């Protein structure tokens, strides 16, 4: 469990390098492991280049995200296969991507909850999902269903506009009784997305998600919500704000989603407003980089060694060297913010933006889980004199998240294919040493 890059201070979780006397006492004991749990609509992403006539043929509205029935799905897929128009087929889903990326970064266990086709044929959508998911992601808790999982077609026309066609299959049929209470209670975090609340009719995904959220809230396990899309939030921002305030501890969003739920276009102000509801905010803002906002007790605040930054909040990064804490654990809570520009200024050419935010969130979750891992194994460490929810400072986490998302931007897949290097040959060491 190690962050990438060479640092002036060893930036890993030194459980094995404890005091020699302590090592002798605990020589027989095994290290306790931390893990995170995510709930998702299990889906396969299919990307293809098409023309406008193709969209018209299947009644698809250009540039929109729309649900299609099984008959249209099969006809669409057969046509793409027949004409060899498919460029890529990847395991998808915003939480599925996050769990996979977390396990690749941490080289450790995560648990994915959802549904999976009971009968899987080689070459099928379900088969492709399993093949493209890290072996470190625990799929043993998936609920079997007699039917297909979800499929999401990303159709790119001549202008580069993306049109999404979604076939739900049985992806929204996760039942509340399939949620393992003990699994949730023992986890470091529960990760959900706004998409899970968009169900109808006999679909039970929302009920299952709320059951898991209740278990997490009752056990004090942090609930992490990623907003997913501004169009869903815009439909009822007041409802979402109330839901976040009541059930969510950590909020992940981009600047558009932040504006939809808070009303603030500026990502820093949106993050600041979200702190009225949650303890930690991650806001990705494209070429502007990444903003983080959280709470720290006045007695634990650490001032930055970087230049103070101007913005909608003056000198907002003053306490970015602080570790994030729950507001309720602070005697005198103060707000801390951090901003990091895109890694290396961003890639020369962006091959894919899908999944970059999911990868950034996975890096943040790695740090949160690492804090729990260290607390489980070295509970008396000075590191845990104060009840922080992160292992590292906001500034360092933000750098790590930017570095991780860079890897997704320079490849076609929304999922990491390998972990990050421990030493960056292409990068000035000063970036990690600061």
Automatic annotation (TrEMBL):
<feature type="binding site">
    <location>
        <position position="402"/>
    </location>
    <ligand>
        <name>ATP</name>
    </ligand>
</feature>
<comment type="pathway">
    <text>Purine metabolism; GMP biosynthesis via salvage pathway.</text>
</comment>
<keyword id="KW-0418">Kinase</keyword>
<keyword id="KW-0547">Nucleotide-binding</keyword>
<comment type="pathway">
    <text>Purine metabolism; IMP biosynthesis via salvage pathway; IMP from inosine: step 1/1.</text>
</comment>
<keyword id="KW-0660">Purine salvage</keyword>
<dbReference type="InterPro" id="IPR046405">
    <property type="entry name" value="IngK"/>
</dbReference>
<comment type="function">
    <text>Catalyzes the phosphorylation of guanosine and inosine to GMP and IMP, respectively.</text>
</comment>
<dbReference type="Pfam" id="PF00294">
    <property type="entry name" value="PfkB"/>
</dbReference>
<dbReference type="InterPro" id="IPR029056">
    <property type="entry name" value="Ribokinase-like"/>
</dbReference>
<keyword id="KW-0808">Transferase</keyword>
<comment type="similarity">
    <text>Belongs to the carbohydrate kinase PfkB family.</text>
</comment>
<keyword id="KW-0067">ATP-binding</keyword>
<feature type="domain" description="Carbohydrate kinase PfkB">
    <location>
        <begin position="134"/>
        <end position="294"/>
    </location>
</feature>
<feature type="binding site">
    <location>
        <begin position="284"/>
        <end position="289"/>
    </location>
    <ligand>
        <name>ATP</name>
    </ligand>
</feature>
<dbReference type="InterPro" id="IPR011611">
    <property type="entry name" value="PfkB_dom"/>
</dbReference>
<protein>
    <recommendedName>
        <fullName>Guanosine-inosine kinase</fullName>
        <ecNumber>2.7.1.73</ecNumber>
    </recommendedName>
</protein>
<keyword id="KW-0460">Magnesium</keyword>
<dbReference type="GO" id="GO:0016301">
    <property type="term" value="F:kinase activity"/>
</dbReference>
<dbReference type="InterPro" id="IPR052700">
    <property type="entry name" value="Carb_kinase_PfkB-like"/>
</dbReference>
<feature type="binding site">
    <location>
        <begin position="93"/>
        <end position="97"/>
    </location>
    <ligand>
        <name>GMP</name>
    </ligand>
</feature>
<feature type="binding site">
    <location>
        <position position="198"/>
    </location>
    <ligand>
        <name>GMP</name>
    </ligand>
</feature>
<feature type="binding site">
    <location>
        <position position="357"/>
    </location>
    <ligand>
        <name>ATP</name>
    </ligand>
</feature>
């Amino acid at each position: 469990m190690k962050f990438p890059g060479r640092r002036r201070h060893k930036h890993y979780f030194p459980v094995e390098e404890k005091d020699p006397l302590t090592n002798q006492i605990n020589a027989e004991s095994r290290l306790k492991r931390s893990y995170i749990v995510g709930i998702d609509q299990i889906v396969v992403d299919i990307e293809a280049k098409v023309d406008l006539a193709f969209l018209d043929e299947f009644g698809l509205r250009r540039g929109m995200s729309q649900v299609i029935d099984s008959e249209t799905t099969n006809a669409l897929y057969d046509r793409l296969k027949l004409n060899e128009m498919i460029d890529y087929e990847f395991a998808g889903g915003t939480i599925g991507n996050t769990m996979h990326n977390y396990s690749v970064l941490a080289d450790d266990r995560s648990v994915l909850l959802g549904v999976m086709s009971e009968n899987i044929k080689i070459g099928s959508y379900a088969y492709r999902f399993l093949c493209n998911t890290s072996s470190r992601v625990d799929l043993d808790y998936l609920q079997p269903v007699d039917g297909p999982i979800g499929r999401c077609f990303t159709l790119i026309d001549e202008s580069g506009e993306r049109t999404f066609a979604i076939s739900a299959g049985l992806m929204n049929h996760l039942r509340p009784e399939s949620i393992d209470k003990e699994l949730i209670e023992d986890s470091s975090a529960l990760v959900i997305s706004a998409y899970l609340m968009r169900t109808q009719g006999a679909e039970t995904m929302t009920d299952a998600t709320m059951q898991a959220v209740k278990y997490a809230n009752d056990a004090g396990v942090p609930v992490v919500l990623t907003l997913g899309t501004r169009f869903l939030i815009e439909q009822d921002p007041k409802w979402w704000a109330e839901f976040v305030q009541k059930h969510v501890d950590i909020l992940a969003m981009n600047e558009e989603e932040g504006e939809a739920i808070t009303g603030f276009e500026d990502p820093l102000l949106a993050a600041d407003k979200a702190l009225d509801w949650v303890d930690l905010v991650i806001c990705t803002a494209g070429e502007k980089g990444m903003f983080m906002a959280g709470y720290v007790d006045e007695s634990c605040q650490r001032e930055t060694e970087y230049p103070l930054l101007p913005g909608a909040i003056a000198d907002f990064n003053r306490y970015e060297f602080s570790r994030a804490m729950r507001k309720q654990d602070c005697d005198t809570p103060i707000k801390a913010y951090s901003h990091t520009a895109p890694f290396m200024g961003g890639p020369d050419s962006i091959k894919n933006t899908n999944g970059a935010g999911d990868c950034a969130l996975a890096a943040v979750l790695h740090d949160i889980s690492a804090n729990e891992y260290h607390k489980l194994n070295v509970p008396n460490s000075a590191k845990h004199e104060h009840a922080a929810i992160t292992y590292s400072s906001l500034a360092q986490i933000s750098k790590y998240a930017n570095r991780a998302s860079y890897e997704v931007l320079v490849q076609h897949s929304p999922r990491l294919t390998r972990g990050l290097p421990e030493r960056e040959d292409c990068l000035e060491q000063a970036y990690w040493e600061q």
